Amino acid sequence: MKSITFNPFPDDLDLLLDAFFAVEQDSTIQYASTGAEIVLGYKPEELIGKKLLDHVHPEDRHKTDGSVDQVMRTKSVMDFENRYIHKDGHIVHLLWSTSWSDKHQLRLGVARDISRIKQAEAMQKTLLAISETVHSDLTLKGIYPQLHQLLNTQIPGLDICIVQHRSQDLEIEFKSDNYWQPSLVALNPDDLNLSTSEIAIALQVKDKELGLIVFRLPAAMLNDNQQDLLQFTAAQITTALERQQMLERLQHMALYDPLTDLPNRQLFYDRLLQALARARREQHGLAVLYLDLDKFKEANDLLGHSAGDALLRDVAIRICTCVRDADTVVRIGGDEFVVLLNGIESRLQAWSVAEKIRHTLNQTFYWQNHSIEMSASIGVALFPEQGDNAEQLVTAADNAMYRAKDSGKNCVR
Predict the structure, then answer these.
(1) Which of 14, 124, 172, 310 pairs as cysteine with 34 (C-beta 3.0–4.6 A)?
(2) For residues 63-87, average pLDDT
(3) Assessment of whether the complete model's pTM goes beyond 0.90
(4) What are the start-end ranges of the E strands in 206-349?
(5) How confident is the model at residue 232, as a pLDDT?
(6) By C-alpha distance, which of 322, 312, 324, 326 is closest to 262?
(7) pLDDT tens for each residue of 294-341
(8) Which residues contact 281 (CB under 8 A, 6 or more apart)?
(9) Which of 113, 257, 327, 335 is labelled catalytic?
C-alpha cells in the first residue's frame, strides 16, 4: 500500500465532516481525510494509492473528466456536482471545490455530501410531476401508467393497483403488473402494515369511499419521505377519481332522462345517426317505433304525479324487457317513448317487437293499493322504406302512431 505523502494540516482536516482529497494528475489518491469515510464509506488507508475516478458513477465519468481538464487549465473549479458509488453500493451526490497546487503538483479537493439535498429536490420534482399528470387532460387510463413510472423514480420496483368502487363491488381499474393479484388483506385499508409487501390506502372523500390504491413494495423498507409520497399519490388519485365521477354525472344528466334513466332525445338522435351510417355501410335495415301511452293522463290526473312518475318508470322497464341490448329505448318526452331497433330486415320483424311491447304494456300496473290499466299506440317506420334520414324516420313513425290513435288506440300501425 502506498504511504501518505501529503498531509499539511492533519489535525484541522480530520475535524471536517467534508472529505478532503489530494490526488495526482492521473487521479491517484495521495491523501484522504477521515471525512472520506463519512462521505464514501472507505477508510483513508483503503483509498491511498487508488484512482479517485474509479469511484465515480459511470454516467458521470465523462463530465468529471471534463472538470479535471478544467482544473488543470484554470487551476480551480468551484461548485462542481457529480455522483460517486459508496462502499455499500448506494449513490452519493458530491459538491466539489477543487484547485491545482503547483507546489505539491497535486489536485486538492473538498467534497461535500449533498445527497439529501438532491433527494429532496428529486422528491419535489416527482411530487410536482404527479400533480401535473393528475391535473392534465389525460384520461385515468392514461394517468395511471405515468404515475407508476414517476413513483418508480423514487421507489424502484414499486407496483401499483387501482381499485374502484363500482356499485357494491370493487373492480380493478389498473395494475402495473398483470400477473399480480393483490391479497385480500391488502384490499382492506384498515389492515395497513408496512412490514408486509403490500400497502392499501383508501381513496376517500369525506365519508364516501371511491376505491383503493394498493402498493406492492420492493424488498427495502420505506423511509418517511417515501411513505409521504404514497399518501400524496393516493390523495391525487382521489382528486382525479372525484373529478371523473363528477364529469360522468354531468354527462349522464345531459344525455339521460332523470325519471326513467333512459337515453333522452339528444342521445337518441346521436345513436340513430350512428345506426343509419352503419346500416348504409353494411346494407341492412333498422326500424323506429314511436309509442304513446293511451291512458296515462287519466291515471296521472286521478292518482297524482307520484303515481304518474312510478307508472312511467315501470313502462320504461317493461319496454326494455322486450328488446335486445343492441337496441335503444328512449323517453322522448311526457308519456312518449321511442325504440330504435338495429338490424331489422323486414316489417314483420319490427311489427313483432312492437306487438310484444304492446301486449306487455297491456298487463295491469300496480301502485300502492291501486291497479292501473294501460295501453299504447305504436307507430313503425323502416329504413329505407319510410325514410332515408333521421328526421324522415322519426316523422314517419310519429305519423304512424297517430294513425294508430285514430284507429281506436292500443294497436300498431
Answers:
(1) 14
(2) 94
(3) no
(4) 208-216, 286-293, 328-333, 336-342
(5) 94
(6) 312
(7) 989 888 888 999 999 999 999 999 999 999 999 999 999 899 999 999
(8) none
(9) 335
Q: Evaluate if residue 3 carries a pLDDT over 50.
A: no
Q: pLDDT above 90 covers what percent of the chain? A: 69
Amino acid making up residue 178? N
Could you give the CA distance from residue 378 to residue 293 in angstroms, rounded to a whole number? 9
Residue 405 CB-half CA count within 13 A: 13
**Helix (H/G/I), strand (E/B), else coil: 354:** helix
Write down the pLDDT at residue 249: 85
Query: SS3 of 158, please?
Result: coil
The answer to whether 376 and 361 have CB atoms below 8 angstroms apart is: yes
Residue 77: name the closest of 54, 111, 105 by CA: 111
Active site residue 224: no
Q: Which three cell numbers stand for residue 237?
A: 388519485
Q: How many whole angstroms separate alpha carbon 318 and alpha carbon 320?
A: 5
pLDDT at 224: 87
Facing residues of 81 across strands? Answer: 95
Handedness of CA 298, 301, 304, 305 (dihedral sign): positive
